[in-house]
Design a protein that fits this description.
Jelly Rolls; 32 strands; alpha/beta; TIM Barrel; eight-stranded parallel beta barrel
């Protein structure tokens, strides 16, 4: 999924979804006074005493944790730098704090900068932007402490969120304990017991939940203590990811599909944030679907933001969750023009020597990634959206093309096969859902790749329907399409289906039913995936960076849409 303009569509797509691991949590209740009763002495929770395996840039360091800069950013569609994307501990535990609370943290060995971020919900992460939630960021650089408060309201430019409160204060001792105290409608920041700032709380932490992250932009630091506390009589508890308690449903879409075609998979694209924080989203995903595609967690910009360094933690959390629920995973993606970190985009190609060196780097990336996930993926997009974004039939001249030439899909396919010979390989493309030049080019690319020694099993047809007048897909066109690929010895995935409701929910439902029914009737079509779960997390930005909510999916605010009911009827026969 990237910058898409299939068959007349004009808006870029950017969705979010989330996922979590079900790690065990250890927390301590510590009395504030030995003579007090349990209800009077309050609660203290040691936030370091938990599983940090699924948080990028954090490793255990004695009794604390060491935090190192990862360089995680969200690359924009033009390959630009995009927003920083520091990690949040989604796969562990978060706090539920309905009233007064305090957070205390101690930083040591700060080489450049140290940040503690506390949010009242995880950010929505899309393929080209991040929606910053309400929360607080404390960033220490030397003796300068930046206090930034966000209220969660959408800014004019969503890619450049501005805090509603932004102040710099000087701390006397940079290694003194920092504290955040909420009392009533006030938020107080202190260092070493000295109040640095007191400000109105507003809507910050209004959800009653606290999600936190630790990050450095340029260096590293150690956290020796990180605790949460509440006075006696005030509830302060920990909670795990929402998806931990979700279970597959015997009446879900996957269960119905299995009765119609035992090997057929019903999937959805997912992200870690909503899966961790939204119970309705988690229950609908796990209950209804039998396969997931990570929206962004397995793209190159997420897995290797710096050359030679890998941040697998978020993707591993998603795969852990899927495995625990018996859900298959389709990997997404290896070679993709619009989701590459800057270092990958800028590998040198000016001379043959440069290209040889860059080839080694790229192949090392493929081998490292595929080996890491070996045995955990049912299938994988080895090449994603290879053709021109203007719906043409020329290969984009990305870094893979500049290094390996037009036969680069074969090189990538062979490297994937060498690392995991059992993963099913796909080339995924938009605008090739119906017969025409683009579909012909996709078919020929798959055949040429295999003739050159590749291992492509099939193609992914994204089936985005952004405009029902220009993008609608007919049953006859799909039947012809499936026959064409089947005759060539290839299988097909409907890989990213979503349908606008701009012509009404009945028209939306009819289009969903048409695509799924055609796929289900053809043995060549082996799976069906919708690009997202719930419209609550379906967002896109226009050319002026304005933020808009989409209404394209099978669930809306936790409830099934008419499109969901139509899909169920197709599966039930």
């Amino acid at each position: 999924m990237g910058s898409l303009t299939p068959r007349g569509a004009t808006r870029p797509r950017a969705l979010s979804v989330v996922s979590m691991a079900t790690a065990g949590i250890l927390f301590a209740l510590v009395g504030c006074g030995s003579t007090d009763s349990p209800s009077e002495r309050g609660t203290v929770i040691d936030l370091l005493q938990q599983d940090w395996r699924h948080v990028s840039g954090i490793v255990a360091d004695g009794d604390g944790v060491r935090v190192t800069a990862t360089g995680r950013r969200i690359v924009e569609q033009d390959g630009g730098g995009g927003q920083p994307n520091p990690p949040i501990n989604l796969a562990g535990t978060h706090l539920v704090a309905s009233g007064e609370f305090s957070l205390r943290v101690s930083f040591t060995d700060v080489t450049a900068d140290a940040t503690l971020a506390v949010y009242d919900s995880p950010p929505v992460i899309a393929d080209e932007f991040r929606i910053e939630p309400a929360g607080l960021q404390l960033t220490l650089r030397g003796d300068d402490l930046r206090i930034a408060v966000f209220d969660g309201s959408p800014p004019p430019d969503v890619t450049d969120p501005q805090p509603v409160h932004d102040a710099h204060v000087t701390v006397i001792d940079p290694e003194a304990e920092l504290s955040v105290h909420r009392s009533g409608d006030r938020l107080e920041i202190a260092s070493g017991g000295e109040t640095l700032s007191a400000l109105p709380l507003g809507d910050v932490f209004g959800s009653g939940e606290l999600w936190w992250g630790l990050s450095s932009e340029e260096g590293s630091f150690t956290v020796r203590s990180l605790t949460a506390a509440a006075p006696g009589g005030t509830a302060l508890t920990t909670a795990g990811p929402a998806a931990a308690d979700a279970e597959p449903s015997s009446n879900g879409l996957q269960a119905l599909a299995a009765r119609a075609r035992p090997d057929f998979l019903m999937g959805a694209a997912v992200a870690l944030g909503p899966l961790a924080s939204d119970a309705e989203y988690a229950n609908n995903l796990v209950g209804a679907f039998g396969a997931v595609t990570p929206e962004n967690a397995m793209k190159p910009q997420a897995l290797s933001p710096r050359q030679g360094e890998y941040t697998f933690e978020e993707a591993d959390a998603l795969l852990d969750l899927a495995e625990s629920k018996g859900i298959a995973v389709h990997g997404h993606t290896i070679a993709f023009t619009e989701a590459m970190p800057r270092w990958m985009q800028e590998l040198p190609t000016g001379s043959e020597q440069d290209r040889q060196a860059s080839a080694e780097v790229l192949l090392d990336y493929v081998t490292t990634v595929v080996t890491h996930f070996r045995g955990r993926l049912a299938s994988l997009d080895v090449v994603n959206e290879p053709f021109d974004v203007d719906q043409g039939t020329r290969l984009q001249e990305n870094i893979w093309h500049r290094v390996f030439g037009p036969a680069y899909p074969q090189v990538v396919s062979q490297a994937v096969h060498d690392a995991d010979p059992n993963v099913r390989q796909f080339i995924n493309e938009n605008g090739a859902d119906v017969p025409g030049p683009r579909q012909d080019a996709l078919l020929q690319l798959a055949l040429d790749t295999n003739d050159q020694g590749g291992h492509i099993d099939g193609v992914g047809l994204q089936a985005h329907v952004y405009d029902l007048e220009t993008d609608a897909i007919s049953a006859d066109d799909l039947a012809t399409t499936f026959d064409s690929f089947a005759d060539a010895g290839l299988v097909v995935r409907i890989s990213e289906n979503d349908v606008t409701d701009s012509e009404g929910q009945d028209a939306q439902a009819d289009q969903y039913a048409t695509v799924l029914a055609a796929c289900l009737r053809s043995e060549a079509c082996v799976s069906y995936t919708t690009w997202g779960v719930d419209d609550r997390f379906d967002w896109w930005i226009d050319d002026d960076r304005g933020l808009h909510q989409g209404h394209d999916l099978l669930f809306d605010d936790g409830e099934p849409t008419p499109a969901y009911d139509a899909v169920r009827r197709v599966l039930a026969g």
